[in-house]
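**User:** Everyone, produce a chain:

**Assistant:**
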Amino acid sequence: MLKRKEKVFCMFYAGCGNVWEAAKKAGYREPEKQGRALLGREDIIGEINRLYERNLRNARQQAYSGYERLAFGSVRDAVELLFAGDTALEQEKEPDLFNVAEIKRPKEGAMEIKFFDRFKALEKLEQWGSGENNCSSDFYKAIIGGIKDTEGEEQEEV
């Protein structure tokens, strides 16, 4: 059974990978020496590996959620900002600009908003779906297939 201080060390080490920093933040007086000694223990290594895997799963889930939000998220607040200008920023609620890659004001009164590429986000989701992380890969393949078909039709019309 790990002591509280050892658990804290494991948590910080799993996050940063730096022995000195993890031991210092955990409250050890001789961080380098005591941190190295902790890394020599099987129970400590096991706990660090468990925490690292948990952190990795959480990071993967956050990335997946971000791609979903880019692919399917609303651009309403950005469009309101485009048409309402600075008055949209004065509202009580903060606008959701997650899908916005860049905002420019090239001329007085003009505004240019560039969004992240939804097709690239869909491609990332499709790649994700082709692995073991997502069981609904057929759905994403169908979306990507439809996009590619549409792109082909647009090129033929030109």
In short: The CA atoms of residues 19 and 36 lie 7 Å apart.
